[in-house]
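Teaching note: in complex prediction, the entire set of molecules is handled at once rather than each chain in isolation. The prompt given to students was simply: 'Predict the structure of this complex.' The entities are:
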Amino acid sequence: MKQVSVKPVDKLSRSAVLWQLIACVAVVLPNVVWLPAWVLLLGAGCIAARVMIHTGRWSFPHWSLRLLLVVAAAAGLLVSFNRDASLNAMVALLTVGLALKLLEIYRRRDALVLLYVALFVAATVFLFEQSLLMAVYMCVAVLAVIAALVSVWQDPLREEMLRPLKLASRMLLPALPLMLVLFFLFPRIGPLWSVELDRSAARTGLSDSMAPGDISRLTRSDELAFRAVFEGEPPAPSLRYWRVLVLSAFDGRSWTVGSSSARGAEVLDVQGETLTYEIVQEPSRQRWLYALDVPLAAPPQAQLTMPRTLVSANEVSQRIQYSLTSAPAYQLATQLSQAERRAYTQLPSRGNPRSRELVSTWLNESQGDVVTLIDQILAYFHASFVYTLEPMALGEHSVDEFLFDTRQGFCEHFASATAFMLRAADIPARVVTGYQGGEWNTTQRYLTLRQYDAHAWVEVWIEGQGWQRLDPTAAVAPERIEMSADQLFSGQAGFLADSPLSARRLIRQGWLLQARMRYDALNFAWQRWVLNYHHQQQNLLQDWLGGITPWKMVLALLVPGALVLGWLAWRLLRWPQPQDPLQRHLQRLLQRVARQGFQRQPDETLNRFVARVAAHSPALAEILQPVAEAYEQLHYAPSTDAQARQRLLAAMRQAETRLKS
Amino acid sequence: MISWPAGLSLQREGKIYILPTAAGWGFVLLLVLLLLLSINFENNLTFALTFLLAALMVVAILYTYSNLAGVRLVRATGQPCFAGEAAGFTLQLGSDTGREHQQIQLSWPGSLPITVDLVEQNPVQVELALPTQRRGWCTPPRVKLQTVFPLGLFRSWCYQPVMARALVYPAPLNGVSLPSTAGNTGQGGLVVQSGSDDFSDLKRFQPGMSPQHIAWKVYARGQGLHAKQYAARQDLDIWLDFSAWPEAETELRLSWLCYWALKLSREDRCYGLRLPDQTWPPARGDYHRQQVLQALALYGQVNS
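The expected output is the structure of the full assembly:
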């Protein structure tokens, strides 16, 4: 036994100091990619200095030096972040604070401040990066912080590094199921005040105007646009037209949305089955949402425009999720007012003379029949046009040059030329931009649409039938509609030019493709069920609890919580079973005796206990006497005497049977 | 050899209380901040982190509780001291839970707390000092065991009775000279056995004699091991008499007597003690001194 002397209570152990260093590094590491270089240098310097102090080569810095560092760091922050109170500035401030505090940790109180701030910094990491890998990494980082917290409170003389880590992991393990319960049940309310997340990176995507070259430029990027989850079967590839914008104004070169009238959405007559699906849209920094041609209604917080596209109340700056129902077969706006007819046949008064001439020739040939004219246009394209990602640049009379000179183009060229010719023939027409196709993930049943799936087509209004989809690209390159853009363009130089290292360029078949699909599915599940849980919670709780009432919520929280904590309490507080079978036997026997009212005192020998019992119940004492004797014999017997053990065991068994009877 | 546990039933002395510490409230503040962050950025991963830490805090309650549960005072002994000093208690802290108990702090009100681990050693012996004021038996209050381990977020504590007492002697006071009372007459005789004043004789060394008295010079001359015999030329009986200062109050008189008893013991003189109700005949040695001091400590106390 050792004599324990008075120790300084407040000092940190040496292993605790090392744990503080590890915890801080682990928490700051994910932010290294964007933190200003001088902050990283300062952090590295402080860590190095603390290690020097730790190994006894340096002493703690003088207060004047510390003050100097604080002032310099504050000035640095002001310069780096230009006095704007952004999230980045706040995290940088906390990081600088961590680094400087690290320099002077010596007592418990210092370490606590450090670790609490480290936990806060750990949380802010998720505001910048939310991937599955990052979540796994942050679990490790938080484990390091908790280990550091344990090391703060342990004996200052303890040196082992692993001891706090073991205890921290033993504590975090039962916390995980409790965390899940809270995560499922805690009601998600909207933001209390508006915050501006600075995701300054420019995004590629559709814009509200379409000039030649705009859509083909998007094929340079494999950035995710959105994913669509279908409850049942997905639509056939030729029906996967995702409607985003309808462009109705033409200035001779580019198509724009044009002035929108205040009227409600065009009348939709659904023919055949509808499809219900869910869209998880990546942040686009634009207001429009994506829908399969053509949506029945708008999701909450969005509106249906007149030509049945969706527009959100706010810019989509975070990943959002919404449910939609669409009708693949439909009749849209069978009636067209005079104003609308005028708007949809509007063309600049001059320009593209050769195209106008060609149309009037065809009109004469078809004697004004719309369908014949359309067939003629498509046949014209089919005969001699090339569908390419990198068409030649077009000049002032873009339609003329495309139709008669270059004869090569991407979908926007065909759509633009088709709509122009129809309007020249006084047939209402408009351009629709959006996405076409998508990669079907067989493991998780969803479509992935990327920027290179961007597409443009035409809608033409036919008397009695309303707006009809007309995709001239299908006449030139029907494979574009049947195959995914990825498969179709893989050989072309411009495709994915902006993502030279994309896995998509390298992996197109075999088990690697399967693995990529699975990885994508995992990521998508992560986004849907974890990152976007607030969109799912309502339905999920409804399904699981059968209605959300306060009572059910409380029960759903308490029951699993009590189970986990009860299990933990049992693990922590149960009395250990004696390892020795003799001891177990004796314990059982004495419990049996105790039930008859005789409790052996802790400091009582078995012999004295039996003597005490004899005073009250000679019969019971008589049963116990052989046990006490055998026990005594064992105590004085050599440790190797197996017989003595056997005798005691036999005596206890006998006493037990006699007690039962 | 099989070893039997001291007790087979969970012996818990009293309740275990548990409350958050200041660091715990700080942690709650951190959780609130994290929750605000999560709500405002609608970020489910920060929600998850917040809930993980909240759950960890709940788990910490159980861990802090179980760190103390099962720890008990196995044994306690008290060491005597003089009034005004701190009485030393040797407390033996143990558990037979089979778990590790770390950073258990023992304290009495007003005493310096001591922190121990029950990890490598179980039970552990702790020296704890309790300040005393008055002579007599010092019965310590219940000792407070408390711990904030492992996370420092909660403090759990309990009180356990200390089954020991320490004897507190009167504070020795040097104020008076011993009066020459009836017994202290004139020259007195020579006391041969074990005085220490003057050298008188050499005797053959026998085991049990004080090694301090070995005549090393004689031994060096090769004449064998001898012990020097001293004779204390002194009064035969020095009496420490309680009634010598009738005008002084009791406690003061006891303090004076205590001082003289210590001084005479140090000088290895033979003295006796006369209290109104008891008399210790003159003697010397540690046992006598203890007897005398105990008598002084407990004089006039009811439950001595």
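Point out the following to students. Chain A touches chain B through 73 residues (CB under 8 Å). Chain A is about 50% helix and 15% strand.
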